[in-house]
Design goal:
mainly alpha
Protein backbone atom coordinates (compact mmCIF):
# COMPACT_ATOMS: atom_id res chain seq x y z
CA UNK A 1 0.00 0.00 0.00
CA UNK A 2 1.32 3.42 -0.96
CA UNK A 3 1.65 5.99 1.77
CA UNK A 4 0.39 9.55 1.56
CA UNK A 5 3.97 10.62 0.91
CA UNK A 6 4.19 8.31 -2.12
CA UNK A 7 0.84 9.48 -3.49
CA UNK A 8 1.74 13.17 -3.21
CA UNK A 9 5.21 12.51 -4.70
CA UNK A 10 3.54 10.63 -7.57
CA UNK A 11 1.63 13.82 -8.46
CA UNK A 12 4.22 16.48 -7.61
CA UNK A 13 7.20 14.74 -9.19
CA UNK A 14 5.90 14.41 -12.76
CA UNK A 15 4.18 17.80 -12.50
CA UNK A 16 7.46 19.52 -11.58
CA UNK A 17 9.29 17.72 -14.38
CA UNK A 18 6.62 18.78 -16.90
CA UNK A 19 6.53 22.38 -15.66
CA UNK A 20 10.30 22.83 -15.65
CA UNK A 21 10.74 21.22 -19.06
CA UNK A 22 7.98 23.29 -20.63
CA UNK A 23 9.20 26.51 -18.96
CA UNK A 24 12.76 25.91 -20.16
CA UNK A 25 11.46 25.46 -23.70
CA UNK A 26 9.02 28.39 -23.57
CA UNK A 27 10.73 30.87 -21.26
CA UNK A 28 9.83 33.77 -23.56
CA UNK A 29 6.12 33.55 -22.68
CA UNK A 30 6.84 35.34 -19.40
CA UNK A 31 8.52 38.32 -21.07
CA UNK A 32 5.41 40.45 -21.56
CA UNK A 33 2.97 38.69 -19.25
CA UNK A 34 0.16 40.70 -17.67
CA UNK A 35 0.33 40.96 -13.84
CA UNK A 36 -3.16 39.45 -13.59
CA UNK A 37 -1.87 36.21 -15.10
CA UNK A 38 1.10 36.23 -12.71
CA UNK A 39 -1.32 36.72 -9.80
CA UNK A 40 -3.51 33.81 -10.94
CA UNK A 41 -0.42 31.63 -11.37
CA UNK A 42 0.57 32.54 -7.82
CA UNK A 43 -2.89 31.67 -6.55
CA UNK A 44 -2.65 28.18 -8.09
CA UNK A 45 0.83 27.66 -6.65
CA UNK A 46 -0.29 28.85 -3.20
CA UNK A 47 -3.37 26.62 -3.10
CA UNK A 48 -1.41 23.60 -4.34
CA UNK A 49 1.30 24.18 -1.76
CA UNK A 50 -1.23 24.63 1.05
CA UNK A 51 -2.90 21.34 0.10
CA UNK A 52 0.46 19.61 0.44
CA UNK A 53 1.62 21.22 3.70
CA UNK A 54 -1.72 20.92 5.49
CA UNK A 55 -1.86 17.20 4.71
CA UNK A 56 1.85 16.42 4.82
CA UNK A 57 4.09 18.51 7.08
CA UNK A 58 6.66 15.84 7.92
CA UNK A 59 10.32 16.79 8.06
CA UNK A 60 11.88 13.31 8.28
CA UNK A 61 14.84 12.91 5.93
CA UNK A 62 13.99 11.19 2.64
CA UNK A 63 10.82 11.28 0.62
CA UNK A 64 8.86 12.91 3.41
CA UNK A 65 11.32 15.79 3.51
CA UNK A 66 11.20 16.30 -0.28
CA UNK A 67 7.39 16.34 -0.35
CA UNK A 68 7.11 18.80 2.54
CA UNK A 69 9.89 21.00 1.14
CA UNK A 70 8.11 21.06 -2.24
CA UNK A 71 4.86 22.10 -0.58
CA UNK A 72 6.50 24.97 1.29
CA UNK A 73 8.36 26.10 -1.85
CA UNK A 74 5.02 26.21 -3.67
CA UNK A 75 3.51 28.27 -0.83
CA UNK A 76 6.42 30.73 -0.90
CA UNK A 77 6.46 31.05 -4.69
CA UNK A 78 2.69 31.45 -4.83
CA UNK A 79 2.61 34.10 -2.11
CA UNK A 80 5.45 36.02 -3.77
CA UNK A 81 3.68 35.99 -7.15
CA UNK A 82 0.40 37.10 -5.54
CA UNK A 83 1.92 39.97 -3.53
CA UNK A 84 4.31 41.11 -6.28
CA UNK A 85 2.62 40.30 -9.61
CA UNK A 86 4.25 43.27 -11.33
CA UNK A 87 7.79 42.22 -10.37
CA UNK A 88 10.06 41.58 -13.35
CA UNK A 89 9.98 37.99 -14.53
CA UNK A 90 13.21 36.03 -14.83
CA UNK A 91 14.77 36.24 -18.27
CA UNK A 92 16.85 33.59 -19.99
CA UNK A 93 20.23 33.34 -18.34
CA UNK A 94 22.37 31.11 -16.14
CA UNK A 95 20.50 31.87 -12.90
CA UNK A 96 17.10 31.20 -14.46
CA UNK A 97 18.22 27.92 -15.98
CA UNK A 98 19.91 26.91 -12.70
CA UNK A 99 16.62 27.49 -10.81
CA UNK A 100 14.71 25.51 -13.44
CA UNK A 101 17.29 22.70 -13.24
CA UNK A 102 17.10 22.48 -9.43
CA UNK A 103 13.29 22.32 -9.50
CA UNK A 104 13.46 19.73 -12.30
CA UNK A 105 15.88 17.60 -10.29
CA UNK A 106 13.50 17.83 -7.32
CA UNK A 107 10.74 16.59 -9.63
CA UNK A 108 12.85 13.65 -10.80
CA UNK A 109 13.75 12.79 -7.20
CA UNK A 110 10.08 12.84 -6.16
CA UNK A 111 9.17 10.71 -9.18
CA UNK A 112 11.88 8.20 -8.36
CA UNK A 113 10.71 8.05 -4.74
CA UNK A 114 7.12 7.52 -5.84
CA UNK A 115 7.58 5.01 -8.61
CA UNK A 116 10.77 3.02 -8.05
CA UNK A 117 10.55 -0.01 -5.80
CA UNK A 118 13.12 -0.32 -3.04
Amino acid sequence: MKTLTHRIAAVLGPALVAVTTSEALNLGIWHDVHPTLVYLNGLLLLVGGLVVVTNHNQWRWGGEFLVTLSGWLLVAAGAFRMFFPSAPQLHAGPVTYAVIAVIGILGFALSAFAFLRR
